């Protein structure tokens, strides 16, 4: 799990985004955080990958998960 490439697209005011980041922190899974509220390139990247404007969008080894779905996250991490 710890060798997964994880990108979290989020905004500071999103509670589900915070929960996703806490999940990765608690499980010692490193991730790259992209704040789409201030980073227009990251926002465009997120929309291109997911087709969504809502956050969080998680990119785990190229698998896109929209929202905070623990089971989908665990599956994408291979656990």
Secondary structure layout:
Blueprint: E1 6-10, H1 15-26, E2 32-35, H2 40-50, E3 57-60, E4 63-66, H3 70-77
Parallel strand pairs: 1-2
Antiparallel strand pairs: 1-3, 3-4
Protein name: NrdH-redoxin
InterPro entries: GlrX_YruB (IPR011911), Glutaredoxin (IPR002109), Grx-like_ET (IPR051548), Thioredoxin-like_sf (IPR036249)
Pfam families: Glutaredoxin
Order of helices and strands: EHEHEEH
- What is the fourth-level CATH superfamily? Glutaredoxin
Low-confidence stretches: none
Mean pLDDT: 94
Shape: globular
CATH class division: Alpha Beta
Quaternary state of this entry equals single chain
Estimate what percentage of residues fall within beta strands: 15-25%
Question: What is the total tally of β strands?
Answer: 4
Query: Taking strands numbered 1, 2, ... along the chain, how are they ordered across the largest sheet?
Result: 2-1-3-4
Overall number of structural domains? 1
User: And the CATH topology?
Assistant: Glutaredoxin
How many angstroms separate the termini?
A: 7 Å
Structural class by helix and strand composition = alpha+beta
- The value of Rg in angstroms is 11 Å
The count of helical stretches stands at: 3
Kindly state the percentage of residues in helix.
25-40%
Name the CATH architecture: 3-Layer(aba) Sandwich
For the biggest sheet, the summary is: 4 strands, mixed
Organism: Candidatus Iainarchaeum sp
Protein name: NrdH-redoxin
InterPro entries: GlrX_YruB, Glutaredoxin, Grx-like_ET, Thioredoxin-like_sf
GO molecular function: electron transfer activity
């Amino acid at each position: 799990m710890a060798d997964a490439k994880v990108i979290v697209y989020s905004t500071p005011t999103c509670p589900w985004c915070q929960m996703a980041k806490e999940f990765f922190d608690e499980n010692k899974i490193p991730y790259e955080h992209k704040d789409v509220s201030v980073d227009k390139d990251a926002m465009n990247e997120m929309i291109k990958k997911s087709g969504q404007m809502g956050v969080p969008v998680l990119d785990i080894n190229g698998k896109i998960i929209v929202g905070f779905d623990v089971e989908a996250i665990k599956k994408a991490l291979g656990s």
